[in-house]
Amino acid sequence: MRLIFSRRPCQFTKVRLSRFKSASFCTSAETDAAADEIAGILQKDDWGRVLEDSPKLKWMLNPETLSAVLRQNSVRDPKRLLSFFNWACHRFQIPQNLDSFSVLAILMCNSKLFSSTNVVLDKMVQSGSPVQDVLSSITRSHEKCKGNDASVFEILIDCYKKRGSLDDAVYVLLGTKEAGFLPSLFCYNNVLGDLVKFRKLDLFWKVFNGMMDAKLVPDVYTFTNVINAHCRAGDVEKAKTVFMEMEEKGCNPGLVTYNVMIGGFSKAGAVDEALKLKESMAEKGFNPDAYTYCNLIYGLCKKKRIREAKSMMKEMRHAGLNPNLIAYTALIDGIMKEGNTAEALRLKDEMVASGIKLNVFTYNSLISGVCKAGNLGKAKALFNEMVGIGAKPDAQTFSILIESHCRQQKFNKAYELFNEMKRSNLTPTMYTYNGIISGLCRGGDLGRANHVFEAMIEGGLKPNLVIYTNLMKGHIQKSRFEEAREIMDRMMEKGILPDIFCCNTFISGLCKAQKMDEARNFLVEMVERGLKPNAQTYGAFMHGYAKAGEMGAVERCFKEMEGYGIAPNNVIYSALIDSHCKAGNVTEALSAFTHMSEQGVPPDIKTYTVLIHGLVANGRIDDAMGVFSQLHGKGIVPDVFPYTSLISGFCKLGDIESALNLYTEMCEKGIAPNIVTYNAMIDGLCTAGNTEKARKMFDEISQKGLAPNTKSYSIIIDGYCKTGNLTEALRLLNEMPSRGVPQDGYAYCAIIAGCCKEGKLEKALSVFSDMVEKGIASTTAFNALIDGLCKSGKLDQVNRMIADVVDKCITPNHITYTILIDHHCKAGEMKEAEHLFREMLRRNLVPNVVTYTVLLHGYDRLGRRAEMFALFEEMAANGVKPDEIIYGLMAEAYLKENNLIGVLKLLDEILVKDVVLDQNWASQLLDAVCKRETSDVLKLLDEMAERGLKLNHVTCDKLVRSVQDKASPEKAEKILESFIQLGWVSDSTRTSVNMVACEV
């Protein structure tokens, strides 16, 4: 604006120079004479015609003459002077000097023609002259023309304000005071109000201090502005102090003051203080208005107190106030952040029904919420809807959609949106690029992530710390630590120093990769740079050491942190509790939980959730429920996560009734289940065989605004397969791609297992071939298929499959070999089974207890007990612990072979480990010893000692007592004497045995 007006005088001078060449040589006397003559003509009603008919006067009419006419002020009618001024400027395009504007403005102001004064001064401002020159001209003219008061300065200030030139307005305000004129309190308040509105707080305090220096007494508007300034700066304590000072000085706050305070407290998160003010204003006779309620709703939502926010909106309606766009948007945003998309969308429909037009901010909250829930289809529908009603998407809208598609690895669609964004003349922001780079990094596509990063720089955007950190994190997740370090070094070369969050990302990655020494070295380097480790730093180390099973190092970290003066917070205690739970140290976890309260760190919802999850994972569901009850007793409102942990725990235990009770309870409390909750419930119901209820739960996912994920589909498909409903299972498998849900090996594996169970082997083979073609064939699916083929006697087909796929797209595991070994053992083909067993060992696959069981069964069927005994010894040597089935097999084998040493060794192991066996094998083993002659038993014991074998004192005691009961006390005495001589039991054992003999 200034540029345009500043050029006009120059253009005029160049074009009209010939016309005024004589005028420029007019003497001062000639100018005064012309001014006198024109002033005389202006006394006439037809002055315009007379001036038009006078060539001489037209020739003499220039800026100096016009200024002289105004200065003389001999025309009694100031309005005629204004008309003459406008006529001359327009008719002859005469560029005016600042003094002409100043004089005319002061004349208008002296005559109380404030509207006309405003017009003149506005034109003066439009001339583009520097504010310093404008103020100087007004000041000079005010003195010469004997201005009445400071009104002309206030009107000038208002002109600058209306044009958005607040800096110039402040210059005039402060300059007026220095020139000896004092603007009114009203003027000061208006300027202060605009300054705080546009967040020009430095100028605000400059003006306010000037006002105080001028001894002006602040009124309610001044105090309100000051309170607002403190609130805008986030300093609600100072705002509160001013509010109290205001009342102490007898200046009663009005509704606007209360609203400013409530708004400030709400935005600062001090919503309880805001609620107290609402009560206070009611006591003072002020009824809350829409602004009051909107701020409170916003504040409550910001603190995630959604239920109270809903109550506040309900109260607002009862007060006869209709919730507006701001109230609805705040509530929708809060509800979306809770994950309750269905409720948020219902509110959106309510808004539309109420005639409230949604704006871009409302749509952004809605789109962001459904995107976080994974429902990109609904996000696109909302996007199309907003375009349809004319709510133009902004950069944030596109960035949310792009980031969400990248999060789901749908990069083609993300790039489409990116290009559409640029076609809409919206410049991609740092947030836009960060969404793409983060998504690519999460997907492991570091090449494209690096390319986008470089393209961003070429486009003129300088990556910030967040983008560098995310790119570095992507490389860390791929264990490319050297490249991650290069990114950090490059960042520092650009003058961007890593913060503690960035360093913690690097340390966390190293700890997860079990590179604890490197993490420690980086910590030392970080400290040398002046960065202090925080609770999150030590939390990463604690998780790393816990993962490695080094609980001693975890405890040392905890103490080291305290030594550095870092008070353990909820995050650290949560990490410590989590570490103990993962190590199975539930007692220590509960002790740490108790200790944190004793140290004045009250557990928060995250700590309770970690403990509940850990207890559930360790099979301590009753203890977990106890902690859950304690959470309620502390007044902490549980969210979806502790409920989900408990529901999952009960489902795994098969206690569907308890799981459903918790599910119902959380829904009744307005806590929306998330996809993990639904998956746990569906899995529990399917495991219980209730696929009908599971399907209703599955369908409910979409009804609640969520999107079923791969796991949801896999669970329900597996449920249908296990209940024989292959048709529906296959239909759901085929439905997955159309709903944008990736098919995974688990779903396919369930289908194959179901087909094999139903004897539909050709279909199972077809499904597996489909997996191979899609590149998602898994060893688990292959195992399910060959198990089905083996059970159907299709060994030739199994061998062909092994030749076709093993080591090409499938790597066999120990289960693969166990299935094949089991088949050959059942067929009596032990040579082939032994060959597979040796091949398994050559592949460095460790046989498990099931593998050994099927081999032992195979040998047992053929009566090859020597091989059984050798395999049993090998199993023990390899550290594989026998289970009850193997102990039973071996007990029977030793007894059949009359292998008394084997019987005693096995008996010793069973009794020491307190193994519970079917058919009371322990009793049969004892009977076998009791039935032998005393001399045979004693000889056997000596032979065991010579071999370096020894019976445990528990076995010795059990054996002596059994002989005492089933044979004779004399025999028992001799055996006991042998045990004592061999040093297997102490002499004191004799006393306890004699006491039992006496009782008998």
> What percent of residues are in strands?
under 5%
Roughly what percent helix?
over 70%
**What is the CATH fold-level name of one domain?**
Serine Threonine Protein Phosphatase 5, Tetratricopeptide repeat
What is the CATH-assigned architecture of one domain?
Answer: Alpha Horseshoe
Low-confidence parts: 1-26, 995-1000
Overall structural class, as computed from helix and strand content, comes to: mainly alpha
Largest sheet properties: none
CATH class of one domain: Mainly Alpha
Would you tell me the overall average pLDDT? 84
Cα-atom radius of gyration: 44 Å
Q: Quick one: overall form? A: elongated
Secondary structure tally, helices: 58
Quantity of strands, as a count: 0
Question: How many angstroms does the end-to-end distance come to?
Answer: 117 Å
Brief description of this entry?
The protein contains 58 helices and no strands. By secondary structure, the chain is mainly alpha-helical. The relative contact order is 0.02.
Question: How does this model look, in words?
Answer:
Mean pLDDT is 84; it is low at 1-26 and 995-1000. Among the domains are: 254-323, Tetratricopeptide repeat domain (Serine Threonine Protein Phosphatase 5, Tetratricopeptide repeat), CATH 1.25.40; 330-392, no CATH class; 394-497, Tetratricopeptide repeat domain (Serine Threonine Protein Phosphatase 5, Tetratricopeptide repeat, Alpha Horseshoe), CATH 1.25.40; 639-708; 882-1000, Serine Threonine Protein Phosphatase 5, Tetratricopeptide repeat. The longest helix is centred in the first third of the chain and has 15 residues, at 78-92. It is built from 58 helices and no strands. The protein is mainly α.
